[in-house]
Amino acid sequence: MNAKHTLVLPGYANSGPGHWQTRWEALDPTFVRVAMPDWDHPVCDDWCGALNRAVSAAGPQPVLLAAHSLGCLTAVVWAARHYGSSAAKVAGALLVAVPDPHGAEFPADASGYGHVPMEPLPFPTIVVASSDDPYGGVPFAERCAKAWGSRFIDIGPRGHINAESGLGDWPEGLAWLASLES
Fold this sequence. Notes:
It contains five helices and six strands. By secondary structure, it is an alpha/beta fold.
């Protein structure tokens, strides 16, 4: 199952120029960012709707999801609530830096993310966590990975696994994403 597109799902406030997601888009034109209705005031249902439209618009070929932070929760909630007939379209998802919606640092402007579905996801997933992520640590990410049936990878102390983490083009992440197609 070869994906034609990779849908890029940034988190709260979008991903800037140095972020691995933005760099991946610059490296490969098949990486397409999902435009969310409001990057600074995310509403879960609105973001899930945007993801659903992007999956539908991607054509008949399967897609991969490359999600960061709130984009991860969006993908998981979408899979649990809105998946329906799109099941065959997602070849897999890389879920990086899953935030804990009950954590002290979770954005107050984000709404509708209070309940994280804790059931197996209908497509292969890899959860990547950092041991010093202020938005969601390893214990929360491990719990999610176990519930979702995901492979779990702890990359050590890399903060929120964003531009400030110094990952550059992050070839390891690209390799993990590609492994979801096999």
